[in-house]
Each structure stands twice: as C-alpha cells, then as structure tokens.
User: What shape does this take?
Amino acid sequence: MRVIDNIEIVIQPTSEEKAALEKMLRPRLLAKNELFLKEGEVCTTIGFIEQGSARLFYIVDEREISKDFLFENAIIGSFASFFSQLPSSLNVAALEETHILEMDYRQVMYLYDHYPAWQKLGRIIAQDQFIRSERREASLLKDSPELRYLSLIEEHPKVFKRVPLHYIASYLGITPETLSRYRQKFKH
Amino acid sequence: MRVIDNIEIVIQPTSEEKAALEKMLRPRLLAKNELFLKEGEVCTTIGFIEQGSARLFYIVDEREISKDFLFENAIIGSFASFFSQLPSSLNVAALEETHILEMDYRQVMYLYDHYPAWQKLGRIIAQDQFIRSERREASLLKDSPELRYLSLIEEHPKVFKRVPLHYIASYLGITPETLSRYRQKFKH
DNA sequence: GCTGCTTCTTGATTTTGATCAAGTAGGTTT
DNA sequence: AAACCTACTTGATCAAAATCAAGAAGCAGC
Assistant: This one.
C-alpha cells in the first residue's frame, strides 16, 4: 500500500478533506524492536511509515514467522484487527528506529463517515491490500520455496539489504539453514 | 463474503438504494465445469451465487491448483482482476450447475459513485475479502499440510461433501496421493 | 582490545511429501 | 451389460527441506 501515492492518483481530495486528515495524524517514534502491536491486542491505531521499517510476524511454537516487511509509505498495523476491531493474531515491530504518523480507529471512521473522498480511499486501500495478500497467497500455494527466494531477490532486492536473513527465511517458509544454502547455490 | 448477510447487518440501504442494486442484477445459469472467467481475461462481471458452487484455480505447468471454493451467497469472480480491471491470473469455473445473479463493472462503479451505502458496502466487502485472504495466507505460511487438512475437516467439513478430493488436494498444497494417505491415517 | 551475543554458514542425518507405477471402484455412455 | 473414463487408493522409491550439531563471522558493550 503506497497510500500517499494513491491519495493524489486515484482520488481528488479537496483541501478541506486534506486538512481534516492531516489534523488527525500525530507523529510517533518507534525504537528498534519496539512492538507497535502485540498478538491478542486489538489494533486501535494505524500509521504511515515516514522513515524506517517494520516486520509483521506470527508466533508459532515459540518461533517467530515473518508475514511481511514494511518500508517507507506503507501502512503499519494489522488491517485485519483494525477493520474488525478484534484481537490481532499477529505482532508488529519496528526493524529499526522508525518514524510514523498515526491515527486512531475512531478518527478513521469519522473520516469515512464525513468525507466521501476518504470513504472511497478506504475502499481502494482495502482492495489494494486484498490484491497484495492474494498475490502472496498464490506464491505460497503455487511456487516452490526456491522459486519464492528467486522471485524475492528479483522483485524486492532491497529486502535483503534491510532485513536480517533469518527473518527472510521464515517469510519464505524455510529455515535459515535452507536460505543459506540457496544463497550459496545461486551465488555467481 | 456473505454479501446478502452483510448488506442488512452492516449498512442500512434505503429502499431506493436496494432498488438500484436489484435492477442491475441479472440471472445466469452456469453449466457444470463452465468457465465463468478464464486466465488472461479481464473480470468485467461479478456475481452472487444463489445456488451451486464454483472453484477458483491457477494453472501451473499444465496442472490445476485450486485456490478456493465458493458456495451459496459467495461472490463469484476474481476480485483482483475486477478491482484492477487487469487480466486475471486465475480461472473460475462452476463445480456443478450453478445459478448466479451478476452485474458488470460499470454498473458497480455507478452504484459506488451514486449511492454512499454501496460505496461503504464496497469497502466492507473488500475488507472482508482481505481478512479471508490473510487468514488463508497465514495457514499456508504457518501450518503443515497435515494441519491444514485437519483444520479444513474441522472448520469446513461440507467442502469434503461437495468438492472432489483431487481439487481439495491442490487446495491444501499436496498431491492427491498424500491426501489419500491423510484420510487413511486419520480415519477412525 | 577482549567478551559475549546474535547472525549466518556448513555438514550429517532424518523426515515429509512428491513422484512413479499399478490397481480398484464408481459412474456414465452406448 | 460392457466399455470407458474419472476419481481414488496403495506401494516403492526419490527428492527436498527440516533437524541436529557445530563452527565462523560480525557487532555491541565493557
């Protein structure tokens, strides 16, 4: 989700609508490894990443399994928990010192109900999130771990520059040992 | 997505809004195995399943991999292709003779732009689709094939009653042989 | 600089599910 | 009913990745 991009590309907020949004955003600084959202909590706040990065992960049998990595302009939080206002099944933590602009659930609902442009943007964001999730779902269903590794290098090389390898391993659905062997195998 | 349920539960359409929707829905009958959408085509039509069932699947190396199964009240089509109006990467086919109510992309956009209730419903449908996709993504990432099999039996036993096993196998990310062995193993 | 921790790599072995191959059972068509 | 097709099962072998184990390399704090 590149919200900032979408905003000006797909909808035309009036300056009043823009002002209403900006007034609600408050800056916040997350320390490295600080949890933005913990499993079991309801995600009542959602934010845009201005500078930095974050990781979404599940905890299964004491182990962390990375679901996604977020960088600048992405929305930080659990959409599933935020939309439903039910406890989150995933954790969200900053990978490094990260600057965000956040707003609360009630503020977002207020924008939806009072500004058609933001209601529409909400729909488009949800659609984009869905498309992104479906693409990931497809890669987990159709592709071998090895192909997922090669695709990630090809399509998102920056992930390897900014995210520790053992986090990437669980994202690919493999162990760190297997990732290490892929790297060896495809090193040229 | 249980649209019909959602409609009355989460939003309050006026009778005018309801009438506008109903006027656009046209009935259609899909024969068993008839394709509703083919890979490469843009999904310009979306429908509600009144009676029957359908399967979404990818084709990889000449093989079909089932992504999802749809039953009564579900929305049939590719959301990703429909939302983006880009070629679909998946196929949609009826599993049996299936009655649907369908409408076109332009009609849906018209509803979104002219009726706040439908714009809002569009957002909520997109959110629900996202949550559903994320849950599936999580099971593919976190769970073993065996656990996915056991969860499917537990949570959606009706799938085993209405869908051929070899379709279910690829949905679980395993071969028909492995599914057959799980069934043997857990038969009590 | 050293110490200790975390990350990453490498090797040996085991496990899981895929593949290959064959056969059985149910339905449908003629 | 016979022939055919599709769906499903069962068995033997193979391949991929996990696990177990150990070590190397990078870094943070003292």
About this structure: The longest strand of chain A covers residues 63-70. The longest helix of chain A spans residues 116-142. The two ends of chain A are 33 Å apart (CA to CA).
